[in-house]
Recover the amino acids of this structure.
C-alpha cells in the first residue's frame, strides 16, 4: 500500500479539485443550506457520511457484479438506485438506534439522494480506476472538501447579510459573486500537490 | 393555457436556469465552451422529452407512494441511452462532458418537471412542456457559454475572434468566472423583470426538498427541522 499515493488523492480531493468550488458538483446544497453555520456543518457531515457509504456499496457491486457480466453501462441506473436505497436505510437505522444523530443529520438525508456530488463521486471513482482503499480515500476527501467549502461559505454569508449590494444583486446574485471570490481563493491551491510531492 | 403559451413559458417566464434557478451544477460546469453547452442542452432536452412523455403516459399506473424511485429509474434509463448514443456518434462531446452526462439523472429540472407537470398532465402537454423547458435550458446555457468563451478564450464555437483571442481573460473560463457570470446574469434578469420579491436560494425552491417534504416518514422529520 503506497501511503504517499493516498495522501496525494486526499489532498487533491480536498483542496486542489474541491468538488464544490472547482468541479461544480453539489452546488444546490452549497447555496441552499449555507446560511447558518450549524446547518452547513450538519449537511457537510451528512454528505461525507453518505459518500463513504455509497462508495463502500457501489465499489463491490460495480467490480464484482456489473463488470464480470459485461454490464458496465448499467452503472448510472444501479448507482442511483443503490444511493437512494442506502439513504433510506441509513435514515431508518439512525432513527431506530442513534436518535441523537438522527435528530441532527436526519433532515438532510432525504435531500442527499438527488445530490449530484454523491453520484458524481461514485462515478468518478469508477472512471479513475481506483482500488477500494483509494476509492474510500477519495470519497472521504471529497466529503471533507465539501464540508470545508460549506463552512467557509457560511462564514462569508453571515457577513453578506449585513452588506448592502445594488438592488438587482440582492439575494442570489450577490451570493454567487461572493462564491466566485471564494473559488478564486481556492485557485491558490493549484499546483500544491506537484509542489509538495513532485510528480 | 394554449399550447403555444405552454411552450413559451419554459423559454422566458419560467426559464429553468435563470428564473427558477434549477440545474445549477451542469450550467456552471459545462458552460466553458459553446459547443459543450449546446451538447449538454440537447442531451438534457432529449432526456426531458422522453422522461416527461413516459411518466405522463404511466402516471395512472405508477403507485403514488413509490413514484419518486419509479421516476428516477425511468430517467436513469433514458440517460443511459443518451450516453451510449453520444459515445457512439459524438465522442468528442462525450469526453468533454464527462461525468456531467451521467449526472443528468440527478438534474433538478428533469425530476422537477416530472413531479410538477408530467405527473398531472397528458402526454402531448407534457411533451410540449418538456420541449419548452429544454429550449429554455439550452438557451440559458448557450448565453452563458457565449459570454464565458468569448471573454475567457477569445473564441466563439471554437473560431478565434481577432484581438480577443490574443488577450483572453482566462479567469472567465475557470471556476470563479463561472460563478461570477451566473451571478451577473441572474442580476440582469432581476433587473429586467423588476420583481419586487427578490428570490433567495434556499431549500424550499429545490424540487427535491419539495419531494422530501411529501415523503411519508422522512417528511415529518423534514418539517420538524424547518420549524425549528
Amino acid at each position: 500500500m503506497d501511503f504517499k499515493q493516498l495522501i496525494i488523492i486526499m489532498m487533491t480531493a480536498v483542496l486542489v479539485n474541491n468538488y464544490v468550488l472547482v468541479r461544480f458538483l453539489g452546488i444546490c446544497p452549497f447555496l441552499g443550506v449555507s446560511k447558518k453555520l450549524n446547518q452547513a456543518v450538519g449537511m457537510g457531515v451528512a454528505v461525507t457520511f453518505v459518500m463513504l457509504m455509497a462508495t463502500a456499496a457501489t465499489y463491490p457491486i460495480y467490480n464484482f457484479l456489473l463488470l464480470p457480466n459485461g454490464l458496465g453501462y448499467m452503472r448510472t441506473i444501479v448507482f442511483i438506485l443503490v444511493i437512494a436505497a442506502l439513504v433510506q436505510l441509513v435514515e431508518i437505522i439512525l432513527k431506530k438506534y442513534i436518535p441523537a444523530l438522527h435528530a441532527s443529520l436526519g433532515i438532510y438525508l432525504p435531500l442527499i439522494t438527488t445530490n449530484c456530488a454523491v453520484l458524481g463521486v461514485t462515478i468518478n471513482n469508477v472512471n479513475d480506476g481506483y482500488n477500494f482503499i483509494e476509492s474510500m480515500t477519495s470519497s472521504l476527501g471529497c466529503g471533507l472538501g465539501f464540508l470545508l467549502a460549506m463552512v467557509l461559505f457560511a462564514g462569508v454569508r453571515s457577513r453578506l447579510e449585513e452588506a448592502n449590494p445594488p438592488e438587482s444583486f440582492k439575494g442570489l446574485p450577490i451570493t454567487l459573486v461572493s462564491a466566485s471570490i471564494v473559488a478564486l481563493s481556492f485557485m491558490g491551491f493549484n499546483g500544491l500537490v506537484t509542489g509538495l510531492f513532485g510528480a | 393555457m394554449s399550447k403555444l403559451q405552454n411552450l413559451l413559458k419554459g423559454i422566458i417566464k419560467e426559464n429553468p436556469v435563470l428564473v427558477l434557478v434549477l440545474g445549477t451544477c451542469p450550467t456552471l460546469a459545462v458552460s466553458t465552451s459553446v459547443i459543450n453547452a449546446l451538447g449538454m442542452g440537447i442531451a438534457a432536452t432529449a432526456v426531458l422529452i422522453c422522461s416527461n412523455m413516459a411518466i405522463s403516459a404511466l402516471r395512472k399506473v405508477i403507485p403514488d407512494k413509490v413514484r419518486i424511485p419509479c421516476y428516477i429509474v425511468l430517467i436513469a434509463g433514458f440517460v443511459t441511452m443518451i450516453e451510449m448514443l453520444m459515445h457512439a456518434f459524438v465522442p468528442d462531446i462525450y469526453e468533454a462532458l464527462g461525468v456531467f452526462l451521467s449526472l443528468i439523472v440527478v438534474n433538478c429540472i428533469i425530476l422537477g418537471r416530472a413531479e410538477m407537470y408530467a405527473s398531472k398532465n397528458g402526454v402531448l402537454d407534457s411533451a410540449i412542456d418538456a420541449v419548452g423547458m429544454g429550449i429554455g435550458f439550452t438557451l440559458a446555457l448557450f448565453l452563458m457559454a457565449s459570454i464565458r468563451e468569448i471573454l475567457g478564450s477569445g473564441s466563439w464555437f471554437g473560431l478565434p475572434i481577432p484581438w480577443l483571442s490574443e488577450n483572453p481573460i482566462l479567469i472567465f473560463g475557470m471556476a470563479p468566472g463561472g460563478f461570477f457570470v451566473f451571478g451577473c446574469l441572474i442580476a440582469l434578469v432581476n433587473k429586467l423583470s423588476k420583481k419586487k420579491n427578490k428570490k433567495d436560494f434556499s431549500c424550499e425552491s429545490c424540487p427535491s426538498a419539495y419531494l422530501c417534504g411529501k415523503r411519508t416518514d422522512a417528511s415529518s422529520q423534514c418539517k420538524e427541522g424547518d420549524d425549528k
